[in-house]
UniProtKB/TrEMBL annotation:
PROSITE patterns: GUANYLATE_CYCLASE_2. This is Guanylate cyclase domain-containing protein. It holds the Pfam family Guanylate_cyc. InterPro entries: A/G_cyclase, Adenylyl/Guanylyl_Cyclase_3/4, Nucleotide_cyclase. CDD domains: CHD. Keywords: Membrane, Transmembrane, Transmembrane helix. GO terms for biological process: cAMP biosynthetic process; intracellular signal transduction. It comes from marine metagenome. Residues 1-101 form the Guanylate cyclase domain.
Amino acid sequence: VGFTKLSAENEPAALSLLEKQRELLKPIVEEHGGSWLKEIGDGLLLLFDTTKDAVHCAIEIQNIVKEVENLNLRIGIHQGEVVFQGSDVIGDDVNIAARIEPFAAEGGIAISDRVNASLARDPDFETKFLGKPKLKGVGQEVKVYCITSHGLPETDMSKVSAKLEPEGFQWNVKNTIGIAASMIGLFMLINFMFLRIGFADEEEVPSIAILPFENKGAPEDDFYAYGISSDLITDVT
């Protein structure tokens, strides 16, 4: 269900859950060396130095939020590059991080092939290959896996609903990392992008940025402005 619709139906509960999310996640992100760059509505932009930092952070997040009613997450992790252009963050890898999130089970973690290659050297981790989807708006080939160790649930492919290109899809039943997560069934989409930093030339404009809407009304209505901009970004991409 869309963020805007849910916040309209039960704004007090949505605001309370959003605040609970910040309260729980910020200390975990800091503990694992992550930087909380910014919030865009129901989205977050974070920065980590290593694959392991991001993955262990994601695992701890899932362990913590499963004890909170209605705070159910899917998390997707991708390793790649991101470009900072002014205050905006752009790049194909940012899109990939968001696109692989739907391939995670509720309470689970989906990862790209780059992240899987890093984890393959660690015997503590087990993963399962999910497929090679043609992700919508993504130019590069991406293989998707889910983490099945650490008590994480395996993805049920019949329940996956992801944005794909209409053709070309087939199932097969000091770097930094990108994570995208969304709450299932109630309230918010959370995007975590933990990616390598780059800087664009002034003439280089590789993508369109949709900035958060500014609320000109009462401060308590900020929630709606954030939600609408987030939903618009999701629909456009």
